Amino acid sequence: MKRTICTLIALAAALLAASCAFAARERVETARPASELIDERQTDIWVEGERLGEMILGARGAIQIIYVDEAMSKAIASDVSLPQWVFEMGRYYGTDPIRKKKLFIAHVDVYKPWDFDYTKVFVGEHRLRKEDILSPSMTNPFGPQPSKSEGYFAFAIPASGLKAGKEIKIGYGDYSEIWKILK
Questions:
Q1: What is the DSSP string of 12-46?
Q2: Which of 34, 43, 159, 169 could form a disulfide with 75 if both were Cys (CB 3.0 to 4.6 A apart)?
Q3: Are 177 and 130 contacting, i.e. CB atoms less than 8 angstroms apart?
């Protein structure tokens, strides 16, 4: 009798372990890689650059802006190959300051001296304001920036202006790209 109970417990434990392993494998196989998610959510803006085919010549700098939703947030947390700035800025997702807002993270590469003015950054009709900025001032590349420098920041804008499926402009000053809001 004692042997039968031990056998049943061992069988139940084996079945539980097998089902957990199967479920974990299914979850991993259906999860999309962070790089694929970034491709859908990233916009690159070249400031003062001239496009020559696939190349940009003479740019003052470049801004990468990434939209962070729940799927992107989870991918960032699980992908150690992403740059540190993506991980640091992506942590704002799900925090109180972004309630009823959409989170974006930005990386600024400076090629020529640039007086970076965050109020020139826009997403759709919304121009950034001081209250939109979430990140600490030590990472923000605001104000005069020397050549070959970089910085990053996170910002949240009202969700009301971003309707799924709509194409909007994201940019800096007179330079912008079209981005389609995810459904």
A1: HHHHHHHHHHHHHHHHHHHSPPHHHHHHHHEEEEE
A2: 34
A3: no
- pTM as predicted: 0.80
Token couple for 173: 């000053």
> Phi-psi category of 17—alpha, beta or left, where left has phi over 0 and alpha has psi -120 to 50?
alpha
pLDDT at 160: 87
The span from the CA of 5 to the CA of 25, in Å, is: 30
The DSSP code for 127 is E
For residue 11, the surrounding DSSP H or E stretch is: helix 2-30
Q: How far apart are CA 63 and CA 121, in angstroms?
A: 10
Q: What is residue 132's DSSP assignment?
A: G
Look at 17-31, 54-68, 169-183 and tell me which has the smallest mean pLDDT. Answer: 17-31
| Token duo for residue 4 | 């039968």
> Residue 109 forms beta bridges with which residues?
62, 150
Query: Taking Cα atoms as reference points, which of 117, 101, 33, 45 lies closest to residue 68?
Result: 101
N-to-C CA span, the chain: 58
Q: Strands of 126-127's sheet, edge to edge?
A: 126-127, 121-123, 167-172, 175-180
List strand residue ranges (DSSP E) for the chain, in order. Answer: 42-47, 50-52, 55-57, 61-68, 101-110, 114-116, 121-123, 126-127, 143-145, 149-158, 167-172, 175-180
